[in-house]
Amino acid sequence: MSILPNKTLGQHFLHDAQVVARIAESIEIIPHACMVEIGPGTGVLTRALLERGARLTVIELDSRCWAVLDALAEEFSGQLMVVRGDALQVDWDGLLCGKEGIRGSVVGNLPYNVGTELVVQLLSLPNPPRQMVFMLQKEVVQRICATPDTRDWGRLGVLCQLLADCRKLFDVAPGAFTPPPKVMSSVVRLTPLPAPRFAVSLTALDGVLRLMFGQRRKMLRSVLKGRIREAQLVELGIQPTWRGEVLELEAICKLANQISPKTTT
Predict the structure, then answer these.
(1) Closest-CA residue to 38 (of 101, 103, 102, 92)
(2) Would residue 1 count as lying in a domain?
(3) pLDDT confidence band for 46 (50 / 70 / 90)
(4) Looking at the structure, do residues 70 and 40 belong to the same domain, yes or no?
(5) What is the DSSP secondary structure assignment for residue 89, as one 8-state letter?
(6) Same domain, 65 and 135
(7) pLDDT, tens digit, for every residue of 155-197?
(8) Residues 229 and 99 reside in one and the same domain
């Protein structure tokens, strides 16, 4: 019996063989290193990864897909483990702990309704994945890879680029999915850094980002009024009349470190 995508779960099943192959080839497979796939659905990408020799754990919330994945686990004996559950709730540290201390990677065609949350959660782990390759909405990937002084530059791009190298790989048209989504998709590769690019309190940073990009068209002197003096902004090389969206990553981190986390909540 065929499995129809569940709209509530944000499912769009990938069926284009060429796209599947490109994704499978985009993530490095290392012997003895585990790999986790989020939301495998009917196992199309799963099979491609297994055929390339991946030692794979898949996380699937939809019980209708479990039998298909169990059959794959039997076919590729010893290569595949099926976790029945929500990727937002699993023990990621346990799943990513591979043999010989090699950290695991994560791949997936992420559900549109939780994709951004999953990316931030994984990057924020004390010991994040070695590499991540995700299919997401194109506009989300544009935000991840955005540059300062553009409409896409914001909280997501700052957090991702602080913690990882971010590279858009290719776009995917709606026709590659069942049902076709209303928007374009893109594949992105995130390679977490050994340490953040700049030393910064993540709590303070998140508070500043919510202020700056929650009112992105306002001048910084207005957005940050009562939290930092204009003279202090100038000392940091930041003009009070600038808008937050023009600041580069390093300047944002300096600003966050200047402001106490208590004043941004």
Answers:
(1) 92
(2) no
(3) very high
(4) yes
(5) T
(6) yes
(7) 999 999 999 999 999 999 999 987 888 899 999 999 999 999 9
(8) no
